[in-house]
Amino acid sequence: MKFSSTIIFLIFLLVPSLKCAFRTGHRHDWYEKNRLKVSCLQQDDPVGRNAVSRCWFWEGMKSWFRRTSISWYPEQTKTWNMTELTAHCDKYYTCMENTKCYKDFVLFETLDRCSHDAFNIGPMSFCYSTLRDVAKNFPDKLSSCVKEHLDATPTRKWTCEIAQDLGNCLLPDVKNYCEPNFLPIFKEHQDSRMFNLGCDGRLKFKDMEDLKDHNATDLVGSSVEIE
Ligand SMILES: *[C@@H]1O[C@H](CO)[C@@H](O)[C@H](O)[C@H]1NC(C)=O
Ligand SMILES: *[C@@H]1O[C@H](CO)[C@@H](O)[C@H](O)[C@H]1NC(C)=O
């Protein structure tokens, strides 16, 4: 009797402190602290953080399923417009934005990662395989930057310069060798990248300027469905 009440007493004592240790110890494990606004990380305001974890889990999972579907059946994307191709990214973005917790540049960079990924594994994959055939059979026909790009491992850096250079590099050979009806979507995708990454001047990321000392691309960790 005495023994069990001691145990119960100990449990009562331990549970809150364990809970506390769990919360402070693991709160940021599944997302990068640097991705969120400071106001959101304050301990006494869990609403935003809870919303972030819900988004991360539910929308992230749905987005991942959509990505998997595209990568297994890329043919389905041949008839899709950009809106259809990136619907899952837009939903994820909207959920993240509604938390009011994410830094702006993180939101838009995540959107770009997701839509660029969907574009590459979807419609662009057919163009890439055409370009690879050309590179194999007529190596002199392609521009050297395209050949380099086909051999290179995908970059983990997300900057205007890299996105712009890649678009400019690919455009002439996409025009020459890929299906003509693919060209509009290629251009539309490139324009949306320039917008999302803040390269065309329409978006200005205040919170990115606050981080001038750091490299923004290093701060944005991989999210659940992207990479
Ligand atoms: C994209 O396709 C969907 C479905 O066919 C259509 O409802 C939508 O209006 C299209 N969007 C654009 C921007 O063309
Ligand atoms: C930021 O990037 C530049 C160029 O890529 C590099 O030289 C520099 O060391 C990086 N700074 C940090 C803090 O990682």
From TrEMBL:
Keywords: Signal. Pfam families: DUF19. Residues 1-21 form the signal peptide. Residues 77-193 form the T20D4.11-like domain. It comes from the Eukaryota. This is T20D4.11-like domain-containing protein.
